[in-house]
Amino acid sequence: MLKPAILYKDALPSCFAIASMNPLNRFVQDTYWNFSDLVSDSQWNSLEFVSVDHSDNIIGILRVTIDRGAHFVYAMMALRFEKDGAYDIAWAKDFKDFFVLLFGYYNFNKIDFEVCIGSPHEIMYDRFCANYGGRIVGTKKKHFCLTDGTIHDIKMYEVSRYDFISAIGEEKWKKLSMSKVMLLTPKERGES
């Protein structure tokens, strides 16, 4: 289940600290975190949500940067803290729900994101784009340095709102987009 990350601001530093020591996370861009400033107090420049289980344990975090002028988001970070396999389905569902939230509630036009080529996450992003109307835009050669000092290429993706909705189907989209709005707090839904 997705919840605003600001609600977990005090718990996130320890999650990030543990995640920073996991060798799989060396493929995550921005792996040098400022542990005292992990969650923004404003949603003007970025949106941050945590994936939590039914006991309110944090599974991971999803973050995007907002381009208000063009009304799209980019620089997505999807960082899963729990790696034991127990939350595979919940994380995959929340990853998709994050896109539904961005397109359905916030009504963004497009989502741009990247992955380090060779990352174990690359195949998931390829499949996600194939299933939900996304596309591979291209690669940046020798663009990303891992924490171990090796240089890697970056694969760039984009998913447009129109293509995402078309891939899901109009009727299913209407049900999905409305159900995700209810995950937000009353304040975020614009209610007093």
SSE sequence, one letter per element: EHEEEHEHEEHH
- Strand line-up in the sheet with most strands: 1-2-3-4
Instruction: Catalogue the unreliable spans.
Output: none
What is the rounded Rg?
Answer: 16 Å
Question: How does the helix and strand content classify structurally?
Answer: alpha+beta
User: What is the 3D shape?
Assistant: globular
Q: What is the helix fraction of residues, given as a range?
A: 25-40%
How many strand units?
A: 7
Percent of sequence in beta strands? 25-35%
Give the averaged pLDDT, no decimals.
86
Q: Specify the biggest β-sheet.
A: 4 strands, antiparallel
Distance between the termini: 23 Å
Walk me through the structure.
The chain is α+β, with helices and mostly antiparallel strands and 192 residues long. 30% of the residues lie in helices and 30% in strands. It contains five helices and seven strands, in the order βαβββαβαββαα. A four-stranded antiparallel sheet has the order 1-2-3-4. The longest helix has 18 residues, at 88-105. The mean pLDDT is 86.
